[in-house]
Write a structure and sequence with these properties.
By secondary structure, this protein is α+β, with helices and mostly antiparallel strands. Helices cover 60% and strands 14% of the residues. It folds into 2 domains: 60 residues, Ribosomal Protein L9, domain 1; 102 residues, Methane Monooxygenase Hydroxylase, Chain G, domain 1. The radius of gyration is 22 Å and the shape is elongated.
Length: 176
């Protein structure tokens, strides 16, 4: 499955996760038999997609993490861990960051995109080096985003296949 398809699936999954919502105005609604209500000043948990609708209609505020701050922290950590180490990112980091970026004005978008690309390029370079030498293990998997996991597996599989092609029949000669 391509990264684009995996990202779409994970985006849906991410939007289904609960998030905290601060209610700005009292509301009650019943959609398809699901009743939801909130009182002004209340903080409630609900699926992100519902919270987003309430937020767009000024009925509530999503209490979501500041992804731009998370991006700056991730970039700083990535620079500190060294050339052959990779820092941990939430598996939906890029998905959440792109959602945040959709809301930015052009100038802010350009600045955030520049930081995102710097982080991406740094991590991509590290992943290529690491994937060339070791198979993906659970410790490393837990540090990667969903997109990076697919990229890693692709690089590793291609590297192993390329080595087999270069070595050719040498393994058969060793056994004689």
């Amino acid at each position: 499955m391509e990264i684009d398809n995996i990202e779409k699936v994970h985006s849906v999954g991410h939007r289904l996760k609960d998030t905290k919502v601060s209610v700005n105005h009292d509301f009650k609604f019943n959609v398809a038999g699901i009743k939801t209500e909130g009182t002004s000043g209340e903080v409630i948990n609900m699926p992100q997609w519902v919270g987003k609708i309430l937020s767009d209609n000024k009925l509530a505020t999503l209490d979501s993490p500041d992804m731009i701050t998370e991006l700056k922290q991730a970039l700083s950590k990535e620079k500190m861990v060294g050339e052959y180490q990779i820092s941990s990112l939430d598996s939906h980091f890029y998905i959440k960051l792109k959602e945040t970026m959709k809301e930015l004005n052009r100038n802010d978008f350009d600045k955030v995109e520049s930081m995102m690309l710097e982080l991406f390029r740094m991590r991509r370079g590290k992943l290529v080096k690491i994937a060339d030498s070791i198979k993906l293990n659970s410790e490393l998997y837990n540090k990667l985003t969903v997109e990076e996991s697919i990229f890693y597996k692709t690089i590793h599989e291609n590297s192993v296949e390329f080595e087999k092609q270069i070595r050719g029949d040498l393994n058969e000669q060793d056994s004689n």
